[in-house]
Amino acid sequence: MMMLLRRVAMKVQPLSRTKIFYSGSSNDLSHAIAEANQEMEYVLGKPPVSSLKDSLNMDEETDLHVSSHLVTNVVKPAAPMISKLTHVGSGGEAQMVNIASKEITNRVATASCKVILGQELFDLVSTNQMGKGDVLSVARIAGIYGAKQTSNLIPLCHNINLSHVHLNLRMNPDDLSVEIEGEAACSGKTGVEMEALTAVTVAGLTVYDMCKAASKDIVITDVKLQSKRGGKSGDWHRN
Prior knowledge:
Layout (H helix, E strand, L loop, with lengths): L1 H10 L5 H5 L4 H19 L7 H21 L32 E12 L2 H8 L8 H14 L1 H4 L8 E11 L4 E12 L4 H19 L7 E11 L6 E2 L2
Antiparallel strand pairs: 1-3, 1-4, 2-3, 4-5
Helix pairs in contact: 6-8
C-alpha cells in the first residue's frame, strides 16, 4: 500500500494555484485536467469515470452481471410427486381415508417374517421343550388375534370385518429360524395388507416372548408383504 501511495505521489503532482487561477486562458485548466486523468489511468490501469452518466452506466452493467449470475443459480422447483399419500391431507395433516364411495370386493393379502433362533433355541423349540409350552401353537393363535386388533394398533386403519385369517409357522434348519406366513381375507371396501402384516409380526413377537428366558440373541427380521388381491389398484405379487 505504501509503495502505491509513493508511486501516486511521484506521478501525480499537485496543480499550481497560479496555473489555475491566474491563467488568462481556460485551455490551461483543461490541459491540467487531461494530464491528471492520464496520470490516474496510468496508476489505476483504467480511465476515470468522466461523468455521472458513465457512473450510472457502470452501475447498470454491474447490476446486470450480478442479476444474470443470480438467474443462472435459481434452484428449480422439485418435480411433483407421481402418487399422492392418501393418509396426508391437503394441509399436510394426517387423515383417515374416506372409503364410502369404494365398491365392496373380495380382498386377500399375504405377508411373511422370520425369527432367527440360533442352534440351542432351535433344538428346544423343535422338540417342544420350552418352559412356557408349545411355542408355535401359541404364536399362531397370537397372530390371528393380532390381525383382528389391527385397527386398534394402527391409528388410521379401518375396522375391517375379517372373513379369514390363517398362519403357518415352519422350522427352517438351514438358518435355524422359524418362518412365519400369514394370510388375511375379507369382503369389503379396503384392503387387508395391514392385517396380514400385523398377524405375522405379532406371531414373531410371541415367538420371542416364549423363548426370551433361554436367550436374548433372537432376531425378528424380513417382515414384508408378499401379495395382495382385489380393490381398485388390482393384484400385486412380490417378485
